[in-house]
Amino acid sequence: MKTYYEILGFSSEDHKTITLDEIKKAYRAALLSNHPDKSRNGKLSVDDIQAAYAILSNQHKRSAYDQALQGSNYQIYSKQEHSEVYDLDDLEYDEKLNEWFMGCRCGNKKGFTVNESILEDNIDIGEILIQCLDCSNWIKVQFQENDHAHLE
Ligand SMILES: [Zn+2]
């Protein structure tokens, strides 16, 4: 099983020094080279790449993941394969924070949150994987470009 760093194309030794910018660039490059419409030999699934980015682009989740990696215990992160699928319309919208949210079974009423910049990062795919802030549940949210066009 590849680590999230490997999924985004980083070698396993140097991940401590990788910046968020580098993660964003690697994410876009990984999506491009594995996009089902643009490459017939894409080896990684878009879900894997998104899951990697969802963790590594979030400082809190990334450090938890780094700790899990050190304990070679990162298989727990493959749970997103069983995520439930929702539409962006199914989530509630918070006008003040300009973000969408949904409650999680663990009791966190805003366990799943997504903001506009995350949507924009994933506009090509039209879906995004989100992990609960408090537990290991994942949901997949599908959206279309015009869902948030009124905000721009
Ligand atoms: Zn939860």
From TrEMBL:
Keywords: Cytoplasm, Iron, Metal-binding, Nucleus, Zinc. Its main location: cytoplasm. Residues 82-144 form the DPH-type MB domain. Residues 3-69 form the J domain. One of its GO terms (molecular function) is metal ion binding. One of its GO terms (cellular component) is nucleus. Gene3D superfamilies: DnaJ domain, DPH Zinc finger. It is found in: Cytoplasm; Nucleus. InterPro entries: DnaJ_domain, DPH3/4-like, DPH_MB_dom, DPH_MB_sf, EF_Hand_1_Ca_BS, J_dom_sf. One of its GO terms (biological process) is protein histidyl modification to diphthamide. Belongs to the DPH4 family. Required for the first step of diphthamide biosynthesis, the transfer of 3-amino-3-carboxypropyl from S-adenosyl-L-methionine to a histidine residue. Diphthamide is a post-translational modification of histidine which occurs in elongation factor 2. PANTHER family: DIPHTHAMIDE BIOSYNTHESIS PROTEIN 4, DPH3 HOMOLOG-RELATED. This is Diphthamide biosynthesis protein 4. It comes from Tortispora caseinolytica NRRL Y-17796.
